[in-house]
Design a protein that fits this description.
alpha/beta; TIM Barrel; Chorismate Mutase Domain, subunit A; eight-stranded parallel barrel; about 10% strand; binds phosphoenolpyruvate; binds manganese (II) ion
């Protein structure tokens, strides 16, 4: 595989752009025709709010016979659109050959799709093809909620020497009914932020929502959580789109939505009075310490219960008692302004820890 280098000029311009916040990527799910791509891109460029144009060139489809993207010829359309609008362009390669084609067509940035991140063979093949190129790569979360696969993809791409790696949170596949096409499971994106604080985190509300009506709330939520930007699917005529028609919006709608979002600053130093935040955070630290002490006391009592059960030869799990405690807690918690979802997860964790303590006593 020949080693290619992106030119220094592109790198400097693109690297400047990568620092911009919010960082907005927009464009059609698929490049369908030169006309569709160009007319969408011109309108997006005219909003003055879009930093990068995206378009799917090869589309991974669930079943054969569906529109699988225009393929390699769309790379020429992207080149043309780039020179007319001045917008950098971004595409999704899914194998080494597609990486090569993107690189030789002047594509400025790449993204790895959710169906690629899920497969370490594919990610490694792409990483090998990217060796020595330095092109910025954005990595979507895997289809399934397995954060280690997401990390694995980051590590494989980082090993190529690429410095500009971004993450794209597009939600996770779920079986059964949900209001989302791919439920966001925000905590996983937040955990990725914790693990890789230096990587840009982009939210893709289009694939999370799967429809237009939920977009505004997900976009707002992403900025409330301090995401660095958004990737949004836009089409000149969304209802006629050949892929993902229900979730695409017009460039005009995008401009309107971006205008209504309340952008939050991640930098606490940018805010006025830090004393308020400092003192609130000190309170939180004190309460966190107290919570730990209380949980530890609770476990010491669990140990004594374990001792009693051992002496009397009684099983650890007392389902009825657990059910009663859970119900009581949920009722109390709701009155205290805590969500049911949280309290169930809290109870599960607490109960499991308690059982582990008792099990150790019984085994001793
Ligand atoms: C896309 O961005 O068009 C796409 C295929 O998305 P995902 O990989 O998130 O399904
Ligand atoms: Mn799509």
């Amino acid at each position: 595989m020949p080693v290619r280098k992106t030119t220094a000029a592109v790198t400097v311009k693109i690297q400047q752009l990568l620092k911009k916040r919010p960082f907005i990527i927009a464009g059609p799910c698929s490049a369908e025709s030169e006309n569709q791509l160009l007319s969408t891109a011109l309108k997006l460029a005219a909003t003055g709010k879009v930093d990068v144009l995206r378009a799917g060139v090869w589309k991974p489809r669930t079943k054969p016979g569906m529109f699988e993207g225009a393929g390699s010829k769309a790379l020429k359309w992207l080149q043309k659109v780039k020179s007319i609008t001045g917008l950098p362009v971004m595409a999704e390669p899914a194998n080494a050959k597609q990486v090569e084609e993107c690189l030789s067509s002047g594509i400025d940035m790449l993204w790895l799709g959710a169906r690629t991140t899920v497969n370490p063979f594919s990610v490694q093949e792409i990483a090998d093809a990217l060796q020595g190129t330095g092109i910025p790569v954005f990595i979507k979360n895997p289809l399934n909620p397995d954060i280690e696969l997401w990390c694995g993809a980051v590590e494989r791409i980082a090993k190529t020497g690429i410095k500009d790696i971004g993450l794209i949170h597009r939600g996770f596949s779920a079986y059964g009914d949900s209001e989302y096409r791919n439920p966001p499971m925000w905590h996983l994106a937040i955990e990725m932020r914790r693990r890789y604080p230096g990587l840009m985190m982009i939210n893709d509300p289009s694939h999370i929502c799967g429809n237009r009506s939920l977009l505004p709330s997900v976009m707002q939520q992403a900025t409330d959580y301090g995401f660095d930007g958004l990737m949004i699917e836009c089409h000149i005529n969304p209802s006629k789109a050949l892929t993902d028609a229900e979730q695409q919006i017009t460039p005009k709608t995008l401009a309107g939505l971006l205008g209504t979002i309340k952008w939050r600053s991640k930098n606490t130093n940018a805010a006025g009075n830090m004393n308020v935040l400092d003192s609130l955070r000190r309170n939180i630290d004190i309460l966190d310490e107290e919570l730990l002490q209380i949980i530890s006391q609770r476990m010491k009592i669990a140990d004594r219960i374990g001792q009693w059960k051992k002496e009397n030869n009684i099983s650890i799990l007392q389902t009825k008692r657990w059910q009663q405690s859970l119900e009581r807690s949920v009722k109390r918690a709701e009155k205290l302004g805590l969500s049911r979802e949280f309290i169930f997860r809290y109870w599960e964790a607490l109960h499991l820890e308690s059982i582990n303590h008792q099990k150790k006593i019984l085994d001793s």
